[in-house]
Amino acid sequence: MTSRDARLVGLFTLVALALRLGFVLAVRRHSFVLNDSFFYGLTAKSLAEGKGFEFVPGYPTAHWPPGYPFVLSLLYRVFGSSEKAGEILNAFIGALTVPLLYELARRAFGRREALVAAGFLAVFPGQILWADVLVAETFYTFMLVGFLLLLAVLPPRLWAWLLLGAGIGAITLTRGEGLLLIPVVIAVWWPGLPRKALLARAAAVVAAALLVLAPWTIRNAIVMDAFIPLATNSSTTLWSGHNPTANGGQSYAGHELTKQITGKQPEVEEARILRKAAFKFMRTHPKRELELIPLKLLNLNRGDSWAMEWVNAGKPGRRPFGKELGTPVRVVADVGYYGLLALTLAALVLFWRALWRRPITRGVLTLFAGSLVMYGFVYYGNYRYRVPLEPLMMLVAAPLLVRAWDLRRAEAA
To answer: Rounded to whole angstroms, how far apart are CA atoms 144 and 155?
Structure first.
């Protein structure tokens, strides 16, 4: 802790906390907003009061994974069911992601690249904006970077493989995309292991992940009377990407589908109807399916200014940001994201082979590829989905920035 780098990382973390906490405390909403943040807050309140995972009192739900509401419920038990308390927690979680990214980048490349990545994350506009929204993105980002760091530092022991599998299970209970970490782990281990050893490690990871997921799946079978491995919203998300009105972004089912819901478990029945309709569209419209892929990727890469749709939600005239302040915030957020995207793509083109040779970045590249398939084909493109990938984009871009700085110094000399 006496080293210069440690002091810098500590400073970056404090700056990250000050920016996030200051923004969270400054934003005050004055009207009721019905969106995902309302669901997370209400289910966390229900858990804190001992009523179970419920959105409507008396009706158990499995519409979203339970990880983030469970964490919020622990906070609510101590400080009461306050949306602001959850946002403050987001600010601390977002700040703590900075030293995790530093250590991950240091092990992947070195100290200079690590300082660049950590400093980048500390002041990145999009990450600051999402800290003020009561959704799982900030928490999932923290878990994702932390998991990759564990993967980099744990020894080749059975207990470590089981721990990684349990981590994947916990992350998946926060967001279903956590299952993409299984091929990430395999990609990190793959070149240096015989096939049998790799299969044995992978089997241990998968078994531990399933063991962590099992209690939630069993709970759903009991209280929802249906096999729901994780959440029913996976069917809603699947339908959004595969339907006659699909445009690459989010879409909602019309009355012709919802009128078919007549059973005692409307949430389960809706999921079944939407899933069946989505698969039918995929089979019968192969040309449109191909046309939707670039549209989904464009929606996935919308600028971070779209976070303001959540931060600034509410009735006109009662929103936290007026046009005179909201517009500059949106511009800064978009410049930040598109600048990061350009740097990441340039780094991939210039350093592809070097990135693939390093275990950590090989895992990151595998995660990028899996995410593009999941959001570009399986589901649909939502700018929220790529928010947790932004620190990993900074990790990939950091060597390019360091190399550019070295070349500039060399020219000056």
So the answer is: 19
